Amino acid sequence: MNKNFVAGHWVDGEAYENRNPSDVSDLIGVYAHADVATTEAAIAAAQGASHEWAHATIQKRFDVLDFIGSELLARKDELGALLSREEGKTLAEGVGEVARAGHIFKYHAHQALQPNGEVVPSVRAGLQVQVTREPVGVIGIITPWNFPMAIPAWKIAPALAHGNTVVFKPAELVPGCAWALAEIISRSGLPAGAFNLTMGAGSRVGQTLLNDSRVSALSFTGSTTTGRNVARAAAHRMVPVQLEMGGKNPMVVLNDADLDLAVNCAVQSAFYSTGQRCTAASRIIVTRGVYAAFCDLLVRRTLELRVGHALAADTQIGPVVDPRQLEQDLRYIEIGRSEGATLACGGAPVRRPTEGHFLAPAVFVDCDNRMRICREEIFGPVASVIPAEDYDEALAIANDTPFGLSSGICTTSLRHAAHFQRHAQAGMVMVNAPTAGVDYHVPFGGVKGSSLGGREQGQAAREFFTKVKTTYIAA
Question: N or C, which end of the chain has less CB nearby within 10 Å?
């Protein structure tokens, strides 16, 4: 059994099975569920290691993170296959995600070496001012199942780079990737307790992290409902919180767009990773002049997508992650039909040689932005195409959502592209590019109901994982 990692030791727990969504007969492994006591022990270990790790040299921090990144890159094919087998991404996506996690650790290894303060003159004579940054303390990290290597990496790496200690709770559906990452970290040279892995249920592990006064900050990525609970707990304890939650991302296609490019962007945004990305473009807003041609081409390209086992070389769209997610996708497809949208293609379970959770990507056309399929995050391979009279109406529809993570526009007009960049109510804007797919060295995050707290990734991560101290020194 693959165990939890607490205070530098592998710790038993209640056993549970992890199965392959491409082939439910394939048992990936048996993993240990942590209970409240184990989680509390992990928090105590992190607190106990805080002083040593906070005062480690920047060279030590660099060496630890660089080691982790180097091993992830060296083992990207092996671990990418595990990721695809466990989560359902295609093999190419799985290998790419592990490589990205490796690059994230290496990036933050170098961030650990960067100057982290400044000396400025005082407005008063005889004083010097030093502005420095210090670790926050114990960071509770809660991550989702859809990016089981990349999202933990972009939280754990900056937390450690800036001298914090970590208690990491991964999603229950992806313990294999979490354990593999923890096993690498366990050999990196960190002091015992500086990093802890507690796998298990949110009701026990997650709630313990939310409630424990020894946890100094909380970083969470997941559903909006759970995110609100995390925010309430953080507010009650008055600790910093970083939330990345849902999205209902728009992609606008204007009359002057290159249609082949626009359809490729839409297909990649809506369906790759089986649509299980918070940055997926599930609302495609198309102006009337190209609406019919765009819909025809989108349906044709969607029907050409090959759905199958994640490890098969010719698969473009892998399985939905588990039976509950498949049920939710199918329920929303029925909601779309009942609301009057036209299901142009897909939307039905697909049979393959192995028993898995396969779903044909669905395209709804003639949608209205007031429909539930256009308002609520489905988190599956379901795209809704919405007609708009012109750019102004398309922009208004794009912004008519409680979310604001990513948005895109396909156009050859510099004027419209520049206007959209300024007026799209989203944390990220893509021009003639898919809405999903972001770099690790620049900020990631949204507005409105998509995000709360400091930005993730890049140098922006420092704002959440450090606290500022201002010191006045008499000359």
Answer: C
